[in-house]
Specification:
By secondary structure, the protein is α+β, with helices and mostly antiparallel strands. The chain folds into 2 domains: 37 residues, no CATH class; 95 residues, tt1808, chain A (Alpha-Beta Complex). The protein is 24% helix and 29% strand. It has a 7-stranded mixed sheet with strand order 1-3-2-6-5-9-8. The chain is globular, with a radius of gyration of 15 Å.
Length: 158
Amino acid sequence: MIMVGVARKRATCAEYVAIANDSDIKYEYVAGEVIAIAGGTVEHGRLIGRTAALIDRALEGRPCIVLPSDMRVRIRAADRSTYPDLHVICGQPERAPDDDHAIVNPTVVVKVLSDSTAGVDRTVRSRFLDQPGPLARSGSLPTVACSWRRPMPLPMVR
């Protein structure tokens, strides 16, 4: 098993894919930097589960699937691979050509905010998700941010 000795390491995307695919630890890839991801809390997991159930129910009968954070999202325009808490794909999932464990066409991304990551999630991470290109059909990818202290209502899907 490949292990990264520190929480951050420089690597190519191909090296990152090899590290991520052969590790029990989750890593994100940001423009040449491999970053270890911390685990969540009970509250975080509970909100993700409830949100997934609500979205799944709202999309019933539509050609959409709700995926948990086990599936990576590759954002080529930002040179980033990340694990959103949830994401929705409507239509056929498209895999990244350089990473068969990553998809490139989420329709909606859900990120649960916590006190420790809310600032980064609202600024740095949202810039990476708001990239034009294959991720977004109309210039920006809908992102639903949920905070377990103050939940934001989910948009209604029609």
